[in-house]
Specification:
381 residues; alpha/beta; Rossmann fold; 2 domains; seven-stranded parallel sheet
């Protein structure tokens, strides 16, 4: 079977969509009888695990309307170029829908028997609105984006969704049944994300062994409302000054959060590390006493499946997460402490009472979320 995996994103960054693409490609390429080609955004480096794969790269940008249209056209031309020696049986398209547009043009104009699978991992239109922070033209952009999504979805042959909730919302918004479909959650690299020994991180940042370290790893973006965590932590240290908060990552909201932290008198209690090497992230998580995954109860987060929770748990660290539907769904498989997403006092109280939470590591549940098993489930369906 000849499969083309395509998405307007690079292979060499560590955003969730790139991580999914990279890991799915890695394990699909190892399946006997499956010949895989990748058509992706231009990448600085091809990851070592994909060094033997045939990768076509297109110079583009994920968050530009014009660049997405350009990606669609270049994808169509790339598919035509490779079809003579590699006629694709399946084109696996990951969001945004620029990948679907290029695949549909190829199917309609060159190879009608090709099947198109549309893999939808998030409410990407709403995410793009949040990222673009548009002041004007929001209604026009949203209307045109959903119109194009509906047209292209009707031309796809099957669908993959990250959660049942996202599938239901999509069907409601697009006014169509999106079948046949399967659910494929996020995954975790169990080899990379595992419990690390020692106090490597605490030593680097001057955190004592007696301190209780609460950590967050991820993008520091305004849409995640991480000031909620700072407000809760202000209450925590007022009750117990042994606690420390570490925010690992970069983002456009980092400077504002640092300033807010200082204005709240948390300068000695909160550490912002900035960006760290991806291979070091498990060492950070392993040094946390508690790992925090705060997402507000907003549409673009409500029906996602944050792989951060899996990475925390895989490192053997207790997880605290807001009680949005996405986290409630994961908590059926992965143990975690949920707090009210709109209640600062509930988070601070549960941090202070975390030792009373009975947390039992479940390796079998985590194994079901390994990228290898997810790739296998994808091919079986």
């Amino acid at each position: 079977m000849n499969v083309v995996l395509t998405q307007n994103v690079s292979l060499d960054n560590h955003l969730a969509l790139s991580t999914y693409l990279r890991n799915i490609a890695k394990y699909l390429s190892r399946i006997d009888g499956l010949n895989l080609q990748l058509i992706v955004q231009e990448s600085t480096v091809i990851p070592e695990e994909l060094s033997d794969a045939e990768v076509y790269m297109i110079r583009s940008d994920t968050y530009s309307v014009g660049e997405n249209l350009r990606f669609s056209w270049q994808l169509f031309k790339a598919l035509k170029e490779i079809s003579g020696r590699f006629p694709p049986d399946i084109i696996h398209c990951l969001y945004p829908n620029s990948s679907v547009l290029g695949a549909v043009m190829f199917k309609r104009l060159a190879m009608p028997r090709t099947k198109i699978v549309y893999d939808i991992r998030s409410p990407w239109i709403e995410n793009s609105l949040a990222r673009l922070d548009m002041r004007r033209g929001i209604k026009v952009y949203r209307g045109l984006a959903y119109l194009s999504e509906a047209v292209l979805a009707r031309l796809a042959d099957s669908f993959i969704f990250i959660t049942e909730g996202l599938k239901e919302k999509y069907e409601d918004m697009l006014k169509m049944k999106m079948e046949p479909s399967i659910l494929i959650p996020s995954g975790v690299d169990l080899d990379l994300f595992s419990r690390k020994g020692g106090t490597f991180v605490r030593g680097r940042y001057g955190i004592d062994g007696d301190n209780i370290l609460v950590g967050y790893v991820g993008v520091l973006s305004r849409e995640r409302e991480l000031d909620f965590s700072l407000k809760a932590f202000h209450e925590v240290v007022s009750g117990d000054d042994r606690y420390r908060l570490m925010m690992v990552g970069e983002g456009e909201d980092k400077r504002r959060l640092e300033k807010l932290s200082r204005s709240m008198g948390l300068g000695d209690y909160v550490c912002f590390t900035g960006e760290v090497d991806h291979d070091e992230v498990p060492w950070f998580i392993s040094d946390f006493d508690l790992a925090l995954c705060h997402l507000p109860n907003r549409f673009n987060f409500r029906f996602s499946f944050p792989m951060k929770v899996l990475e925390y748990s895989s490192c053997g660290t207790r997880v605290m997460a807001s009680d949005i539907p996405a986290h409630e769904e994961i908590s059926k498989s992965i143990p975690m402490m949920l707090y009210k997403a709109d209640d600062v006092h509930d988070l601070s109280r549960k941090i202070l009472e975390h030792e009373s939470f009975e947390w039992v590591e479940d390796k079998r549940a985590l194994n079901s979320f390994s990228w290898e098993n997810i790739a296998r489930d994808m091919t079986l369906n």
